[in-house]
Design goal:
Oligomer: single chain
Number of helices: 4
Shape: elongated
């Protein structure tokens, strides 16, 4: 078993409440939720793996190819699709 270290962290109330709700939804402890979140953050700081870079490239290529096809073959709806995507991003993330 891996040795663990206790680290106390102070969080703003809204973040603490969101963490509690997320932990309950995932059926895990807040401690485990924070551990997982920190692992994901540290992975991102360390840089993406080769597999992550390949996936990102593939997604970008797919999005660009689809956008080009829509621009050329369905130019009449291209602006409408972009506006809808923008609206959905704003609703999902709070800002685009």
């Amino acid at each position: 078993m891996t040795d663990t270290v206790l680290i106390s962290v102070r969080l703003p109330q809204p973040i603490a409440e969101a963490a509690k709700a997320a932990a309950e939804a995932q059926k895990t402890s807040r401690s485990n939720l924070v551990r997982i979140a920190l692992e994901h953050f540290l992975d991102g700081v360390a840089g993406a793996s080769e597999l992550d870079r390949r996936r990102q490239f593939s997604l970008e290529y797919l999005f660009l190819a689809l956008d080009l096809i829509i621009q050329r073959q369905y130019a009449d709806v291209h602006g409408e699709l972009l506006a809808e995507a923008e609206a959905r991003m704003e609703a999902l993330c709070g800002a685009a």
